[in-house]
Amino acid sequence: FEGKRRGHSGTQKSWFRVSPGSNIYVWCPKLILNGQDYHVPYLNGISMDGNTIFESARSKNENMKFIDDVIHGDQKNLTTRYVFAYYKDSSGANRYRYRGIFELNKVRTIEEKKRVWERNLDIETLSLKSYFN
């Protein structure tokens, strides 16, 4: 997320690992819906059926490195994301909605020159029991 709050200006990451050393991330993207643009450094769009998320950097130069990181670089083993999409409800409150478990399609990522995350339709729910006492 990008913004100014209490004198802070910059970008906050919207993801974290499920546990140290895990190849699974929890991701809370701001998805572009109905043309709504959050003016963040990354463009995160979702298909009309909700089964594919497209992620790219705004800058073409940054986007090439962004793609290379998940194909050959530091993030090449981070291929699964639990997605909780950010949105504002009708009262203007910030909310997050579980969208599913998404996996990186490396072939489409290379072809389309943006990260392509496809929803794993075999897993519809996510249990959070192990994260609570």
The number of distinct helices, counting runs of at least 4 residues, comes to 2
From the spread of the alpha carbons, the general shape counts as globular
Mean pLDDT: 82
Strand content of the residues, in percent?
A: 35-45%
Level of helix content?
Answer: 10-25%
Q: State Rg.
A: 15 Å
Strand order of the largest sheet: 3-4-7-8-9-6-5
Strand tally is 9
Tell me what the structure shows:
This protein is mainly beta and 133 residues long. Helices cover 14% and strands 38% of the residues. The protein is built from 2 helices and 9 strands. The protein has helices spanning 60-71, 106-112, and strands at residues 2-5, 8-11, 15-17, 24-27, 42-46, 52-57, 80-88, 94-104, 115-119. The strands form 2 sheets. The chain has a 7-stranded mixed beta sheet. The chain is globular and about 40 Å long. The relative contact order is 0.17.
